[in-house]
Amino acid sequence: MALVVGCGSGDDTGSGSEDDSGLTPVTVGLIPIVDVAPLYLGDSQGFFEDAGLDPTFEMAQGGAAIVAAVVSRDYDFGFSNIVSLMNAQSQGIELQVVAAGSSSTGEPGADFGSILVPEGSDIDSVDDLSGHTIAINALQSMNDPLIRDAVERAGGDPDTVEFVEIGHPEMNQALEQGQVDAIWQVEPFHTMALDAGMVSIYSLYAEATDDLSVAAYFASGTLLEDDPELAAAFREAVNRSFEYATDHPDEARTALLDYTTIDPDVADRLVLPAWPTTINRDSVDFVTELTVGDGLFSEEDLDLDRLFPADVQ
Question: Cα torsion for 235, 242, 270, 173, to the nearest 10°?
């Protein structure tokens, strides 16, 4: 799959400085999945321009890579699963969520991602993942602790599940070629996998907890100190984009074609995530409990009130 890795007219990261149009260029690190479609849609609707911003969107494989680019100020803002943000904070990296990102639909069998296996696999349910390999797009992120929890609750042995890091665009081929036994896949690649005969065995996010907040947009502590007005403007544009995408789902599907080369028929049929404008703190606390229990980081190293400030809850 080819990806369009830039959008918008901003040339460089330059928070706080206007370009010739009078807009402030900002660079936003994204992942080429359906979750980020509202930003492309919002840009086309003029929501970022209304907020005084000229965005450029850049693609990366996972939240951890985007965290590094935001910290180095290669990106002004980034999109990441919430666990990668917690992990960064636990290591002393100063980040803060500036806007919600995406959430589960809460509907098993009708969510924007699931665990998939090849047709004819001996893996029929999530507990069968014991002793098998499963691809996720980033290690030590949202997905490995949720998968281990699901396997354990189903009566399997989570310690015997092996995780392999593979980007979402490459996962389907990896499963077809037998490189892994299962994949955790999301849209638009999820619908493409189902079309290729792969079988869904578990809706990970929808089954985890109610109204699971999956991802968020964030900035570095230095940007927030230097230019809090920029973060507020970005949040305004993102929230307007979410509200518009929620009210106009067909346009959100069409926006996906701006940064992928998927078939329009796939875009018409895929499942969209939920795009609330706030983070569900109860679901954050649930995920925190799982990740701390996994030993990914210590609760003493987290300040969730700082990472998820009141204006995004």
Answer: 0
